[in-house]
Design a protein that fits this description.
The protein is an alpha+beta fold. It is built from one helix and four strands. The protein has a four-stranded antiparallel beta sheet, with helices on one face. A hairpin with a 2-residue loop joins strand 3 and strand 4.
Length: 174
């Protein structure tokens, strides 16, 4: 009499456990990848928004003279009675801070309420534009024909406010 051998056509418990572990590791890796991508996307969106807000200030300053067209260089910063809508020269923006942030037409952008635009304007020597950084040797208000405009974008995140983006440029007028 011949004995008949039967072969199993299924998975053993060990094989099923290994398959489950392999699939779980794959799923967790994909979930971690999605989390990393979402984090990078949020950061890129924040930096893009901040760069655009800094560009708005630059667009305003592009058409402005460095000093007041009427009073000249006798006043550095906003002249008495001036407000954002009447700023008529670049030095008026020194130590200005806007929250909510403003656009190139000087209108508040309510959707950008978590951002603050801080502006600093300092005179620089045209022959040494890298000079007169923090604590420089040119006295604020000295007319040199050139200024460094620095725009720093801050973002409020809960109770913390931290810098997100900063850009500076030199404006020179004859």
């Amino acid at each position: 009499m011949r004995s008949r051998r039967t072969t199993s056509h299924g998975f053993t418990l060990i094989e099923a456990a290994f398959a489950t572990v392999i699939v779980a590791v794959g799923v967790l890796s994909v979930m971690e990848l999605f989390y990393a991508m979402a984090t990078q996307n949020r950061q890129a969106t924040r930096l893009t928004s901040a760069a655009m807000l800094a560009t708005h200030i630059r667009e305003i300053c592009t058409t402005q003279p460095i000093v007041d067209p009427i009073l000249g260089s006798s006043t550095f910063g906003p002249e008495t009675g001036e407000s954002l809508s009447s700023f008529d020269d670049i030095d008026d923006f020194n130590n200005a801070s806007f929250n909510p942030a403003i656009d190139a037409q000087r209108n508040a952008i309510d959707e950008a309420g978590v951002f603050t635009q801080k502006i600093s304007v300092v005179p620089v020597n045209s022959n040494n534009p890298g000079g007169n950084l923090a604590g420089g040797d040119i006295i604020l208000g000295t007319y040199t024909g050139s200024v460094r405009v620095t725009v720093t974008i801050l973002q409020r995140d809960g109770n913390l406010t931290k810098p997100v983006y900063s850009v500076n440029w030199i404006a020179t007028r004859d």
